[in-house]
Amino acid sequence: MVMDTIVKTYFQYHWINKVVNISAENEFKDKYMDTNNFKTITGGDSIHVDAKFKKAISYDVYAKLISLVNKLPDVIDTSEGYFRRVLIIPFYNVFTNEKDDKEIGVKLVSELEGILIVALKGLRRLVDNKYNLTESKAANDILNEYKLEQNPIAEFFQDEIICNNGVQIKQCDILQHFKKWSIKNGYDDWKVISSTRFWTLFRKVLNDKGIDSRNTKKVKGITIMIGITIK
């Protein structure tokens, strides 16, 4: 089942006793992927499974989702609840007809014993690590890039904000600067972000970096943020 179907449909009986769901072609028709079903399936919680002419049941889904994509899905949900469920493995090689090895199947058969040994070593490492996957710098780097892409406010903070005990700035100036920055950097959808949503996401970035988002003061009715300013 492709990811676009998984995130849109109600839970069905095909999840019963399924160990893994592998989908090779994944194109998302909507602008943003709805993460609700994705998080439910990958969260280890019981789901309500319903189907026509069958009795509804509760079931603990344990299937792993493996999806091949050319482009990572855009999401509105930028919480760790989503990102901690995502492990991105980048494939940078491009295979063309010139590089196509017609004998690859035969060659792999001759290497099956070695491939099995590598897999068993990996399994032993996984067991010894209490079933936590070994961290990869390449995977961590691309996940961090994905986080920045999905929450431009985090990228804006990284590029444009200075943290220092001796500085301060009007809160409204930060929002206006972000809107100009978003246009300059190609985030056209974000230039019309509401004030409420912006400050919710901005304060989340502050808190994630260990900065007290409540460190403000009022001067003649204007909110001043203390400890940060624009570069």
UniProtKB/TrEMBL annotation:
Residues 10-85 form the NrS-1 polymerase-like helicase domain. SUPFAM superfamilies: P-loop containing nucleoside triphosphate hydrolases. Gene3D superfamilies: P-loop containing nucleotide triphosphate hydrolases (3.40.50.300). InterPro entries: Helicase_put_C_phage/plasmid, NrS-1_pol-like_helicase, P-loop_NTPase. NCBIfam families: primase_Cterm. This is NrS-1 polymerase-like helicase domain-containing protein. It comes from Clostridium estertheticum subsp. estertheticum.
